[in-house]
Amino acid sequence: MSDTTDTTQPMKAQKKTRRKRFWITLLGFLIIIALGVFGGYNSGIKIRTDAEATQISGSLGVEFERGAIALAEGRYDHARQHFEYIVQHDATYPGAAEGMAEAILGMSFTATPVPTLTPTLTPTPDMRGVEAIFANAEQLINAGDWVNALAALDQLRKEDPNYRTAEVDGMYYFSLRQNGYDKITQVGDLEGGIYYLTLAERFGPLDNVAENMRGNARLYITAATFWEINWEQAVNYFGQLASFAPNIWDGASNQTAGQRHYYALMRYGDQLYNQNNDACNAYNQYVAAQAYGALDEVAAKNANQSYQICYPPTSTPEPTAIIVVETPTETPVTP
Predict the structure, then answer these.
(1) N or C, which end of the chain is more exposed by having fewer CB within 10 Å?
(2) How far is CA 281 from the centre of its chain?
(3) CA 219, CA 243: separation in Å to the nearest integer?
(4) Residue 77, Cβ neighbours under 10 Å: how many?
């Protein structure tokens, strides 16, 4: 009786061991299959995303080439569309932002005709002679009436193209330069200012002040192309302007570069906080914006929450007890 029991127990143990090994082997096999499927899935996704990135990169090159051709041919609206497509997909693409700004600038020039004489300026050819026209142009320049001065110079050149050529060229240069400068600084007409400064350059090289002003106006226009499209780039470009020309402004928006930088910082902070989950970087944008003034309601709320996330409160350690050990003093022994 006892011999039978001893024989069957090892057999049962062997069967359990085999079953256990079977299930372990099966489980391992299933895990290997699952890992293979998961790896293949991730590999497929990577291949697809890489292919999409390659396709987009290739298309950006084609768009840039088409935009450059359209810009060279004066088809500014088509050029703008090509460059805008590039900026939306890759704001750092070399030359795209500058191309878009140049296209927008070209559109403004073609859309705005060159100022012509009005009946109040020179309704009929001046019959007083070129000397009188020349003297009138000098008076208008001295009065800072650049538009009428240029009209008088145009009339003078029409009457006698060879009259005091060098002096008339100098008067053209000065009037065009001053008109362009005033348009940028006093009217906020950045495109018009660039136009007149460029015309002045035909008569001689621009001075450093005028050249810097034209460069600032171009940078403002470039920065404005990113407005509400790419807040990061708007912060970048308006930040550059705010560091050395914060008061340059655009008459259309009636905002200075400093004001634009302030607003773009808040909106970029909102984007980092709400979309990118980057509380610390968002808080840095809000801190930079506060250099200009108080945050608006949305930015203030996000700034407070981003601060709580980035700088969570820490527990204050309990003060440790200070144990004072009294040193026994020896009592002097009296003789």
Answers:
(1) C
(2) 16
(3) 13
(4) 13
Rg (CA), the chain: 38
pLDDT in tens, the chain (335 residues): 444 444 455 555 555 666 666 666 666 666 766 666 555 555 555 555 555 555 566 677 778 778 777 777 677 777 778 877 787 777 677 877 777 767 766 665 554 444 444 444 455 544 458 999 999 999 999 999 999 999 999 999 999 999 999 999 999 999 999 999 999 999 999 999 999 999 999 999 999 999 999 999 999 999 999 999 999 999 999 999 999 999 999 999 999 999 999 999 999 999 999 998 999 999 999 999 999 999 999 999 999 999 999 999 876 665 554 444 455 555 554 54
Tokens of 125: 């050819």
Name the 3-class secondary structure at 250.
strand
The enclosing H or E element of 324 equals none
Distance CA 198, CA 190 (A): 12
**Burial category of 196 from C-beta neighbours within 10 Å (exposed 0-12, middle 13-18, buried 19 and up):** buried
- DSSP code, position 123: S
Count of other CB atoms within 10 angstroms of residue 117: 15
Measured between alpha carbons, how far is 146 from 139 in angstroms, rounded to an integer? 11
Tokens of residue 330, six digits? 């020896």
Burial classification of residue 81, based on how many CB atoms lie within 10 Å of its CB (0-12 exposed, 13-18 middle, 19 or more buried): middle
Q: Is 132 helix (H, G, I), strand (E, B) or coil?
A: helix
Is residue 258 within 8 Å of residue 289, measured between CB atoms? no
Eight-class DSSP state of 256: E
Contact 96, 225 (CB under 8 A): no
H helices present in the chain, as ranges: 2-72, 76-89, 96-111, 130-142, 146-159, 165-182, 190-200, 208-224, 231-244, 257-274, 279-289, 297-310
